[in-house]
Amino acid sequence: MTETQARPPKSPSSPPAGSGSALDRFFDLSGRGTTVARELRGGITTFVAMAYLVVLIPLIIGDAKDVTGAKLDPAQLTTMVALSAGLTTILMGVVGNAPLAMAAGLGVTPIVVFQAAPHMTWPQAMGLVVLEGVIIVLFALTGIRTLIMDAIPLAIKQAIGVGIGAFIALIGLVDAGFVGHHETASTAVGLGVFGKLAGWPVAVFCAGLVLMLVLFIRRVPGAMLISIVATTVLAIVIDKVATVNPKLWGPVEPKVPDKIIATPDFGLMFKVDLFGGFERAGVVTASVVLFTLVLSGFFDAMGTILGVGEEAGMLDEKGKLPGLNKILTVDGFGAIVGGGINGSANTAVVESAAGVAEGARTGLASVFTGVLLTALIFLTPLAGVIPIGAAAPALVIVGALMMSHARKIDWEDLEVAIPAFLVIVLMPFTYSITNGVAAGVLAFTLLKIAKGKFAEIHWLNYVLSVVFVAYFALHPIEEALGIK
Known about the structure:
- This protein has 484 residues and is mostly helical.
- The protein has helices at 3-6, 22-27, 36-50, 52-62, 74-96, 109-116, 122-141, 144-151, 154-175, 200-217, 223-241, 276-281, 283-311, 324-340, 352-357, 363-375, 380-383, 388-402, 414-430, 433-450, 459-472, 474-480; strands at 102-104, 179-181, 189-191, 346-348.
- A two-stranded antiparallel sheet has the order 1-4.
- Helix 5 packs antiparallel against helix 16, helix 7 (122-141) packs across helix 13 and helix 10 (200-217) runs antiparallel to helix 11 (223-241).
């Protein structure tokens, strides 16, 4: 599948409808070659592709206990996750004017659950999330975060988009059950789960992937959205007439809900203890957790923003993103909001690329996505209708499109090719954007030093390299400090 075959045109042949309107002027629709209809389609597609997070994140958090053995109520968590995602996504659209959706991050949430909660109470753990957001906002407002992003070598930035493409494609394949753990420990992953493609959910994914590919290649407007809706209907029918193990569907079983409207539960709102974690867990332990949160939130978002921004055609020839500081500030504020209302740390999500592939180019698409996410606090039963297998094909196709950025990397120059390669493979192999960025920067700095090309290394890359060494050595450091 080549770029010219699969990718929809980035700018229309004639001026967008509605040119000169208030929306056009505010979001620069004409300047970015888009229309209100295209932004609406892209916004809805992003929403559908990421709606599973509103169900999945509460399940991850709600299944864990804090140091006292307490659990958070899943219904309350769902309300908080949907509300914080919706509000911060709208803010990203209005302030950042970028087609980036915000939600509790799958990279940061496990840190809250598995590193913070075992040492402190939930309010104290969420307090660290708020502090993470404050630190990231300060980095953005002072220009430090922009400086760091600009210091990242161009080849690494180009590789980030490719790596994220591979990462989200793997997420789609794993979530659909098409790729999973192998039967033998010597093989990390294989076809299907434990070597078998089993169950109707995998068949639903395959049907959705074929339909989406056909519609997308034929340039049918709304191809991804049409496929996701059609595949969801198919899944509902199959679940009704066939005997399907509910666990095979993942966190969302495709059932017609008994009711559509639900009363939101705001019981967790603002139940946060900002500094209690340092007293409960100790300054060293809490600081290590906070360091991990900041690093993961910082570079996960950086990778997503650069990757999706390049896919949307927003980056200039030097790999810089206009209006970056506003986008980064909103992203940091998302963590403050998420932690403040117990919805975990919000960050820009890679599923935004699905909306970009459908034509989203401005913050108007994010406003549409945010409104739909906010509405889920009243429509939470609907969030439990779309199975991951129906949305997963969009992630696979978007991943394929983002791989095209690999052509921009100079593969003949090993000083940039090897770091770029590490970025690309480690993101999916370790399930972490941060790990990929860290390995790429370290390798780039090391190879340039080995060649004596010190003038080609931005001084911040030395600092980042030291930070990333500490990041990779975090476990032995914790052991040395007596942190269990």
